[in-house]
Amino acid sequence: MIEIEQARELVDPVVIAAFEGWNDAADAASATVDHLMKVWSARVIGEVDPEDYYDFQVNRPLTGSDEHGMRRITWPTTRIAVASPPDLDRDVVLIRGLEPNMRWRQFCAELLDVVEELGGTLVVTLGALLADAPHTRPIPVSGTSTEPDIVDRLKLEMSSYEGPTGIVGVFQDACTQIDMPAVSYWAAVPHYVAQPPCPKATLALVTRLEELLEIPIPLGDLPEDSQAWERGVNELAEDDEDVAEYVRALEEARDTTDLPEASGEAIAREFERYLKRRQEDS
To answer: Which domain of life is it from (predicted)?
Structure first.
């Protein structure tokens, strides 16, 4: 059982979770939770016992020194933190860890016990996958939800995926089994630049969370890091004509697919997001 530090009673908390591993191409999803923990000054209140869920020959502990110069070992685990964003009238619970190597159902049950103990009313899972997406275009983010009102408000979909899944899918299903409202966002990372980090994908996930929570989220260095990442990939593509030609083909396919949405509601959403950002900066 996960031991939680005594904390004040949270206000209608939304839970945001991401896990390194199969669900986390280029570490884009886990980097999103890292970003939220930083900009919202989140406080860690508990963690799972790694002995129960991790194979230490697969996810090895790390040895190093702490801030006092003392040698210590950091064990792979999943941590739970809480935050109170200044622009949000509810609290946030952040779950960030590694996809477990064993006992997935027990792992999800333990986390959901904590979610219910803290009063969580909505779970948002984040993931990232490798896809045929050009790095020069906005990173596609697909969203699904179990809640019809959220599907309608954010123009999401009811999931129809069939095939292998990771801990994000299992955790999402565990939410459904106990009637916990859940949303899942997945960023499509260009497969030809799969090495982490991918700040452009992280920025895309943060933007979708802004839409869900209806607040501006401090972006920090993400916009500049995203531009630098894209410039770096451009330089790599320029040095390899085969890659450059492949990117052009992806761009053409993407632009053709997106043409029907380049008006009306899509433009209105972008303009609304721009206005929110202007209000935050003023």
So the answer is: Bacteria
Integer Rg of the chain from CA: 20
Rounded Cα distance between 139 and 134, Å, is: 8
Residue 195 in this model has a pLDDT that exceeds 50: yes
- The domains of the chain are located at 2-220
Nearest CA-CA partner of 85 in 222, 215, 220: 215
The total of other beta-carbon atoms located within 10 Å of residue 62's CB is 10
Report the distance separating Cα 231 and Cα 22, nearest Å: 27
For the chain, percent of residues with pLDDT exceeding 70: 90
Angle between helices 104-117 and 167-177 (to 10 degrees): 50
188: pLDDT strictly greater than 80: yes
Domain range 2-220, CATH class = alpha beta
pTM summary value: 0.88
- In this prediction, residue 254 carries a pLDDT of 84
Reported residue count of the chain is 282
Helix or strand holding residue 15 (H, E): strand 14-20
Alpha carbons within 13 A on the beta-carbon side of 134:
20
Distance CA 152, CA 70 (A): 53
32, β-bridge pairs:
none
